[in-house]
Amino acid sequence: MGTTYLLGLLSLITGFSVLQQVRSWNITVPKTVTAVEGSCAVVPCQTKAHVRVTWYQYSKMYYPVVYDRYPPTVEQQFRGRTSVKGAATEGNCTLTIKNIRRTDNNLKVYVWINPDSITSQKFYDQTVTVYVERKAPIISIEKQIVEGDVFQANCSLIHSCPSSTPSLKWIQNQFLNNSTLKASNEKENMLWLYTETVYGLATYEMHNSKMGCSAVFSDLTIDSQPVILNILYKPVNVTLTAENDSVIDGGSVIMKCAANSNPRPHTYSWFTRQMGQNIKSNTKRGRLLFNNITRKTSISCMALNDIGAGQSDWLDLDVQHAPIILPASSCYLTGEALKCVCQAEAFPDASIHWTINGNDTFSSSFSFVFTNEKHVTSGQLSGPAESQVNVTCTATNSLGSDTRRLDLHLSESSSLSMWLVAVMLLVGIALLCAVGIYIKYSQLRSSPGSLSNASFLLRPLSLPETIQEEQRYQCPQRVQVEETQSNTGRPESDPEEDTLSCVYDNCVVEEIRQSRAKKQENNATAPSGEVTEEPLGKDGTWLHGGLSTVNC
Known about the structure:
By secondary structure, this protein is α+β, with helices and mostly antiparallel strands. Helix content is 18%, strand content 37%. It folds into six domains: 23-133, Immunoglobulin-like, CATH 2.60.40.10; 138-229, Sandwich (Immunoglobulin-like), CATH 2.60.40; 232-317, Sandwich (Immunoglobulin-like); 330-410, Immunoglobulin-like (Sandwich), CATH 2.60.40.10; 414-442; 447-552, no CATH class. Helix 3 runs antiparallel to helix 5 (505-525).
């Protein structure tokens, strides 16, 4: 009785526990989940606090494990891809499947809470079906962008994994080197919308180019549909071409103006430089006929649209014309060598012919050189010179000829030599004069009693000779002293005569004293009342005892 009672009591307790466990589990899961290929699938699940969760794939024959805390029990196709990261104490039993593939489409899963416990609950009655969709990124941009403006381009992608945003890669990113990027991630229904926006500067090189983006997942890359950029810009790379193969002087030519622009040009301006005149004309045509073309004609065109204008380079027309001998053509004579240069402008290129004194046959001592550069032919003749040279140059092409008698010039080297000789002669003459002056000056300095720079005329005066000499050769102060000592009865001397410089007194004082003494002796022996005059020299100076000049 006791055993039976205990078994019955145990059965009652066990049955109550199982019933309590079965009745206490309420699971909240959706019926379907949408996942984006390459992203992840999130299967929401909520229940009470629990210890362990296991997810199974629904199957009629067996129970494939999608997720378990023990990885070896998980099916190979799901191993490493599934996880339950919610807090079990809060009853979170959400399943995450990453790297969703197309083979995961229509996958049915169900959850088992605390699978180690004994329960009769049929968890597989609450299955969740996973649908997989492919979502390519979408790029959007303005329809028209003006060159130089800042444009905006958006790349958006719908994904199903809020915890892991996809990676977007821009195509044609060479145009976005200086761009800035902004990203956002917003929930949209049961999915998420991730958007990247770039801001860049529009250039005409971007016109008609493709721009797109790609969604990069770990196992998959999905490209967007490209967008063709439409950039509005002014005419660039304006070119001008002549449709005629050749243009003859006085003829006509058809010119074509082409430009790279968006939109196309609506007006063309034509510029012509001809015979020193500038001509401008406006037309809606990019193809124009020009008449009366002459050599050295240049044409340019300008294309205009609603954005701006662009002009071509100047095109110099190759106009066929008869030869024209250029003014630089001439002959140079260097000693007995003759060198002539003849330059002729022509198209087609000209040929050069020479004649000397009417003769076009030359000896072997003459040499000829011909060069051509941009329709200018240069001929050079070198040979011995004659006493009288008459050189003629003739340039000829298919359209005509031109003949000119060349001027004869002394070469620059000969002119330079003559100039140097003249300069040397002048320098030599100047040196000879300088040497002569120096020798004369030295002789004058070496003769006794001579003045180097000046000669003083000794004028005859009525005054006595002694006073006369003293006034001419001595300082006034010394003359006054000597007169006071020797002859106190003499009349005063002329103040103007006393102004003679005394610098000569020191030089010739001895000669003056000797001369004075001799004159006093002569005066003493001369008859009374007679005045003896000194003879005049050739230069008109008085000679005093053979002394005519004073030299310091």
